[in-house]
Amino acid sequence: MQGLEKIDPSASRYPFCVVWTPIPLLSWLFPFIGHMGICTSSGVIRDFAGPYLVSEDDMAFGKPTRYWKLDVSKVDSSSSDVWDAAVFDASEEYKRRMHNLCCDNCHSHVAMALNLMHYDSSTSWNMVNLCLLSFIHRTPLPRRDPTER
Fold first, then answer.
1. PANTHER family under this entry (predicted)?
2. Strand ranges, E, within 10-52
3. What is the dihedral of CA 115, 105, 55, 6, to 10 degrees?
4. Is the CB of residue 110 less than 8 Å from the CB of residue 37?
5. Which strand (E) or helix (H) includes residue 29?
6. What is the DSSP track for 70-139?
7. Which is nearest to 131 in space by CA: 147, 117, 116, 110?
8. What's the pLDDT tens digit per position in 97-126?
9. CA separation (Å) from 126 to 12, 16, 49, 107, 139?
């Protein structure tokens, strides 16, 4: 199976992961709130960064500080191709959407990708359960120089 690269924080590669980074001020007041992206099978980060904008490998609030490794075997057909297609399709859809902090945001983008791939046999992923689960399951990365973006 292709795309089984290892996680490499120095290269910002997180295959089959949901990644997270804090949002200044907001995350300081509410530590469970932050900016989220989803990575392809090769580890390329895609995040809904603002109105009509899905970034690739340039998260809106800096490099990931935490990640949540997901299990590709929980995807329909256990396929990295299905995973990548779902990430691509969700990203293409969100390139046509206005960003709304409260109800259609980066978490919603990740939820759509997981729903499209039927991750864990579910199409009920949403920003609330992703916020909670990513807060519980995320793995912190070593601290980095604060001047580094």
1. TRANSMEMBRANE PROTEIN 222 (PTHR20921:SF0)
2. 17-21, 35-39, 45-50
3. -50
4. yes
5. helix 26-29
6. --GGGSGGG-HHHHHHHHHHHHHHHTTS--BTTTBSHHHHHHHHHHHTTGGG-S---HHHHHHHHHHH-E
7. 110
8. 999 888 899 999 999 999 999 999 999 999
9. 25, 18, 17, 7, 21
Structural contact between residues 4 and 21, judged by C-beta atoms closer than 8 angstroms: no
**Which residue is listed with tokens 């859809």?**
93
Distance CA 68, CA 145 (A): 22
Cβ of 8: how many Cβ atoms within 10 Å? 11
pTM: 0.90
Q: What span, in angstroms and rounded, lies between the C-alpha atoms of 149 and 138?
A: 20
